[in-house]
Amino acid sequence: MAILGRTYFNTSLTLGSLIEEDTPSTINPATRLVCTIGPVSNDAETLTQMLRSGMSIARFDFSYGDQELHQRGLDNLRKASKQISTLCATMMDSLGPEIVVMNRPSKPITLEAGQTVRLVCDSSQQASKDVLPISYPSLSGTGLQPGRSVFVGQYLFTGSETTSAYLTVQHIESETSAVCIVQNSCKLEGIQLTVHIGNMKNTAPILAERDKQALQTFGKPNKIDFVALSFCRNAQDVKDARAFLNSIGMQGTKIVGKIENMEGLVNYKEIMNACDVVLLSRGSMGNCVDPEKMFLAQKMLLRECNLAGKPIYVTRVVDTMVDAPRPTRAEATDVANLVLDGADGIVLGSETFRGKFPVATVETVLAICRQAEKCFDSFAYYNSVMDFAGFHSINPNIGKTEALATAAVRAATKLKAAMIVVFTVTGRSASFIAKYRPKQPILTVVVPRLSTNGLKWHCTGDFVARQCLQYRGVLPVCADPSLGSPDGAILKAALQSAHERGLTKPGDRVVVSQCPRVTERFSCMQEAGVVKILTISADGVQPADPLVITDQGMQRCSSQHVFGSRDAVLDCSDLV
Fold this sequence. Notes:
seven-stranded mixed β-sheet; globular
């Protein structure tokens, strides 16, 4: 049975704190922000401002534009990222089985409410007010029938503009033609017109030939971190995409399953289990789900992904900022509720692709996220996930890595630690800690891993560090292997980095988690997993009097948390 989510809201704010202006913060919020890069945002200056404002992942949507446009944006992104020393992951969005209007005239197509228009699967016909040829071979098997709704709107539509048409199928003429009634007067215009048929059964392959070519010529050479599957329908779509990525040498690229139609919603569990990241595309989904039920789908997906520890992102938050410098009150509240409901991140589409205020949009959305995070009840969230998994029982069925993660989060919460430090090779340890949504930032030290195919050596450090940006609250940094073992000079360097970023100050507690993992380079990583509690000394770097917690000790402790305290802690009752 599906599980609906809850909002984790807990605040001691007063009326005075609402009126007072906030002190500017140099630390980005934990919530991630994906920005779609387009003509208004692909120059180096704008990208630099967006990175400084808190953009985590840059999205290149191949539903529109040629490869030259996207390459220019990516080159400028990496130039900006290097210039200000800021990590930014990249996401490539596929066209997939998306349907578009073909053969459009140079001028807008004007439709009047009440008129009829034919949808035809015929690429030889010219688009007009009477005929809309679509990029799909046949209406047979799609489930299209009289009474079904069809939406036609510009690429990255907001739904509020007068460039979208709502149609209702009147009757089916043949396997390639359907007559529809126009429900609203509009002018169809924009860079591309997409077609969404309600409850359609789309049998097109998940990766079109155009997608496969783009992945080979753009994705692989540019080492893209994430590939988003548009209109993902089931686990098989994810498996097919994974097989193709592996076949062209993109084994390390993560897959984002975009749930944006009824097929995907029905099969959300298998998609969630098969992909690396879930993305709820509310724009397209809104054409398949009744408005009064949309919140149910959203909360269900958020909660299911939260409990599974699967990163989840949501689209379509501040559509009005395409044309206005400020969101509506409803939009601002919507962003905050996504944070309180546990979303890992938010995706901006038309706002940064073609909007008038791309940088202001990034700043505004993340400012709302920062405020919402202050009210997020992380301890209630932690207990909720632990209870659901049965980890509070006497003999929980929990793996070592997750046990260490829960111990680190619990200790950080009870000791009011300033930060959690986690060492990782693949990013998996960081994902387990992020799953429990601690209030503290998660400084993730990625230890590079060397591999070879017999001809070349490859280092995964930067790649894994960028992919760690998918998790809420994770701040990835790459370790320098020349410094030695992770718990020595590398830890000191990590603490130095945190101090310079304003994450810690003398006297702060820091919780350090090291995964139980075997590596060829570091002998200490071959030991059992360990959690340490450090107190930052006067210089803000050197740790003092560590408390060490091993996973073996935790196995002997019924609470599954801290065992063997040797540190001077005022209240350890909840940690033992």
